[in-house]
Amino acid sequence: MAWLVGATVAAANAQAGPLPGFALKAQTEHFSFYSRGNQKIDAAKSERYLSQIQSLLGQRVSGRAEYYRYETPQELAAGTGTYAEGVTFARAGQIHSTQDFHAHEIVHLVAGQMGNPGAFFHEGLAVALGNGGRWHGKDVHKLAREAARGSRFTALVAGFARLDADTAYPVAGSFVASLIERHGIAKVSEFFRACSGANTADAFARTFGRTLDQAGEAWGASL
Q1: Residues 177, 202 within the same domain
Q2: In DSSP terms, which residues pair with 89 in a beta bridge?
Q3: Which domain holds residue 46?
Q4: Taking all residues of the chain, what is their mean pLDDT, rounded to a whole number?
Q5: Do residues 84 and 156 share a domain?
Q6: 130 and 56, same structural domain?
Q7: Quick one: 75 and 126 in the same domain?
Q8: pLDDT tens readout for residues 98-155
Q9: What does the longest C-alpha to C-alpha distance in the chain come to?
Q10: What is the end-to-end Cα distance of the chain in Å, rounded?
Q11: Long-range contacts of the stretch 24-28 (C-beta < 8 A, 24+)
Q12: pLDDT at 196
């Protein structure tokens, strides 16, 4: 696909405060919800899920996040510059979504506060948790098999943004789900916190006791 289902992007690209044309529809402890027209918002479900993810990852989101509900990806692109069903500006505390409840993006909101291991791991965690380890209704482990056999793992990680979404997201989701299954979610959170964006490979080796390629080889063999 030519567009992203979810992304974590730099806070510098986010706009501060309510966006033009949006009206406040609801508020909860951790969210202010905005929409245009009569777009629905499931405020209670979003608040409950955020609490679950904060507890799971051991990370709190400070303040009240802004959740902007759009009707179409085209509208979202006009507001954010990214054609997608959802985009999260984690450091600015903003979710932009075409859905009334968007678990994938809420995972980004929380995980984006922990550290920056790069798009592969951010999207992998959001797919593993927010999408329940499925992509378009299919198990990500099954979808990832062909890509895992045909590529060096570090190339998949580094080239995430250049891959077709129907390859990139299942591969990332499958690998991160495997990390969670093998090491536990607390260890994955520890890895995120050890990353600053430029030290992902070193942080991975220190946290999990093996290199990315070694872990990728073991993951591929398990599919």
Answers
A1: yes
A2: 94
A3: 11-111
A4: 90
A5: no
A6: no
A7: no
A8: 999 999 999 999 999 999 999 999 999 999 999 999 999 999 999 999 888 877 899 8
A9: 52
A10: 24
A11: 25/69, 27/64
A12: 87
Place of tokens 């929380």: 110
| Cα 77 to Cα 13, 98, 133, distances in angstroms | 13, 11, 26
Copy the structure tokens of residue 200.
Answer: 């992902």
- Nearest Cα to Cα of residue 171 among 105, 120, 118: 120
At which residue do the structure tokens 């070694």 appear? Answer: 214
Task: For the full predicted model, state whether its pTM sits above 0.85.
Answer: yes
State whether 66 and 97 are in the same domain: yes
Asked whether 7 and 172 are in contact (CB, 8 A), the reply is no
Q: How far is CA 35 from the centre of its chain?
A: 22
Question: DSSP assignment of 47-69, as one string?
Answer: HHHHHHHHHHHT-PPPS-EEEEE
Rounded to an integer, what distance in angstroms lies between the CA atom of residue 14 and that of residue 87?
10
Q: Which amino acid is at 63?
A: G
- 89 part of a folded domain: yes
Within this chain, do residues 22 and 104 fall inside the same structural domain, yes or no? yes
| Number of neighbours of residue 63 by Cβ within 10 angstroms | 8
3 within some domain:
no
Q: Which residue has the tokens 């706009």?
A: 15
CA torsion, ordered 206, 208, 213, 215, to nearest 10 deg: 180
Q: Is the pLDDT of residue 1 over 60?
A: no
**Residue 130 has what DSSP assignment?**
I
CA distances from 154 to 3, 93, 160 (A): 23, 30, 10
For residue 19, the 8-state DSSP code is P
